[in-house]
Amino acid sequence: MSSGSSRQTGVTAGPAHRRHRWLGRLLLGLLLGLGAWLLYLLPYQDLPGWVEALGRGTAALGWYGPLLFALASAGLTGVGVPRLLMTGVAAALFGVVTGLLASLSGTLLGAWLTFLLARWSGHEAGLDRWPGLRRFSGLLASQGIVPVLLIRQLPLSSFFINLLLGLTAVRTRDFLIGSLIGFLPEAVPVALIGAGLVQSDRALMLQYLLLGLVLLLAAGLLLRWLHRHGGRMLPEGEEGGGE
């Protein structure tokens, strides 16, 4: 009887849900296209000059500069612009600490918005269409921040990871905490390198760059270890897909 009532509800709400899903998918497609267009427009040949001009503009804004940069990072990373590019630019503009805080807060906000849009546009439909995703979704929902942190280390665009997580039942709190922790291993060394590239003192520049490269190497080894042993952090019953 419950299945019959659920079918009746599906018939009644079917057209509205289909419009809802198609609208969400259209928005996600437009965001992805916008991100690709913005990547194409980036001034790769004169990136140092572009960063210098941006620095002069943000310097006049005082503390509003990092805030506006965080909002810009949210919009840009939310449509697929690489978050590490924004981290390096932020550190070059505002220094390691302020730049890291501005870029991380903006990146996390952008990831959360994409996550919410993916969930709004077809969470249940995605689980119904890909049965394997439902088991994966249950695993994420039951294990908290650890699976989110591990997924963040995959060599995939943050945009697609946000979409994937948005289609699962992972809790928003776990998504935010796991994403923030997962961003740090790469964001910290990239911030040091970005800040070092604009130092006028050659010795200080070398210190920043060496420290950033050492931490980047350490982060690479950590990520390699997580890829090999991350599954052991999960319960054996979940990992093995017990009955």
TrEMBL record:
Bilayer topology: Multi-pass membrane protein
Keywords: Cell membrane, Membrane, Transmembrane, Transmembrane helix
One matching Pfam family: VTT_dom
Domain VTT: residue ranges: 81-195
Subcellular location: Cell membrane
Transmembrane segments: 22-42, 62-81, 93-120, 140-163, 175-198, 204-223
Entry keyword Transmembrane: yes
Keyword Membrane attached: yes
GO CC annotation terms, alphabetical: plasma membrane
Entry's family note: Belongs to the TVP38/TMEM64 family.
PANTHER family assigned: GOLGI APPARATUS MEMBRANE PROTEIN TVP38-RELATED
Protein name: TVP38/TMEM64 family membrane protein
